[in-house]
Amino acid sequence: MRTFVSAVAVLTGLVLAAVAVPAMWVDRNIVQEDGFVAFTAPLGKDPAFQERLAAASVGSLGADRIPDALAGLVTPILESAAQSLTSMPGYPDAWTETLRNSHRLNFAGTAGVPAEADGVTAPTLDLAPLVGLVAKQVADATTLPLEAPDQLLITIGQPEHRQVLDRVAAFAPMGYAVATGALIAFALAFVAARRRWAVLAGIGLGTLVLAGAWTLAADAAGRAVTATSSGNEVAEIFKNEFVVAASSSFGQWVLAAAIAGGVLLAAGLVLRFVGGRRRA
Fold it and tell me: How many structural domains does the chain have?
């Protein structure tokens, strides 16, 4: 009976761990605002993405915002801004604000975003802080009171993807409770076991299997996200870079789990060998 209870507890713990690890990664790096900003901030350093960001930001300050009499003066400044946007002193702060605004649009719900954004139904980037940076440079160079738009929204997905984000935001934080349940199950298995080396080896082997399953699932999710099209070049670059970064980051978690699984498996086999020699 003890062996049966121990085996069931190990299997239960592995099933819970299979859900808990991805959920905790998603919560820390996507659902939580600070984690999302820290995770995606390096994407703003990609040269191709920077070029498209600059073009989109400058392009939003079109002719309708510039008097015809000043177009000849302002246009060269805008062209210069497109080349130097990412080297401006305020760029890091503007990019961070862009990420925070975008996260609030996608996760905080309509109660946490401006009224103009109530109609947002798909994953979205808000480039307004970057546009404001360009407008400030033009205003400083020409004394022209050029006003940036309050929002510059770029869709990076489809409405069904927004629904997925809503579900993720609701369920990902539960990963910590599920992880606690997994630890309790493993502890129960260890206490109930007649052969504790088998529990260690079983948890280790199961963790190695989970590492492979997580890798396959992450690859499939990445391909699914990459296959979607938003029709916007800025959004496509951001999406592709995000998938690469997510794969690398989650891969580190999987690697850590695989190492832990290997250590537990080895420890179980060592205990089995040592115990066998003592009995002999």
Answer: 2
